[in-house]
Amino acid sequence: MMENYLIDNLDKQILHALMENARTAYAELAKRFNVSAGTIHVRIEKMKQAGIITGTQLTINTKQLGYDVCCFIGINLNNARDYPQTLIKLEALEEVVEAYYTTGNYSIFIKVMTKSIDHLQDVLINKIQAIEAIQSTETLISLQNPISRTVMP
Questions:
Q1: Which residues is 96 bridged to in the sheet?
Q2: Cβ neighbours of 17 (radius 10 Å)
Q3: What are the pLDDT digits (tens) for 32-53?
Q4: Helix 37-49 crosses helix 26-33 at what angle (to 10 degrees)?
């Protein structure tokens, strides 16, 4: 991995364009930014080597797949040393889509997607709260997600 790669305005333009549509052809980017396709290729490869670009991502509309309930669950552990094993158990649950090790009121904060409130109740009781190291949980149900973006370069 290349360290200390400083991005310039062209790199930023390339990143913005790829964040809008990761499938944009190098030739199209070259035409848009008035440089050669080879320049685009080299810039993208350098940003990959520097760890700035780590892959491409497919975005899925979870509601179209029937996942209507999004919630966040704060988890308190019995003991901090239970974190690694608890994380392994949470990662095995397909409903858990994100997890964060946090400071503050919770040891772990997770994002869970379920198909219904009944499904959520089943996940809470029979999967998450069944993990012995978990002392308690607090569930916050999301009503909507009006802002969803990544950090802009």
A1: 112
A2: 16
A3: 999 999 999 999 999 999 999 9
A4: 110
* CB proximity list for 116: less than 8 A, separation 6 or greater: 68, 69
- Cα distances (Å, whole numbers) of residue 75 to 50, 71, 84, 118: 35, 13, 14, 20
Residue 28's contacts (CB-CB under 8 Å, 6 or more residues apart) are none
Strands 69-77 and 96-101: unpaired
Q: Report the candidate in 92, 88, 68 with the shortest Cα–Cα distance to residue 145.
A: 68
Give the tens place of pLDDT for each residue, 94-128.
999 999 999 999 999 999 999 999 999 999 999 99
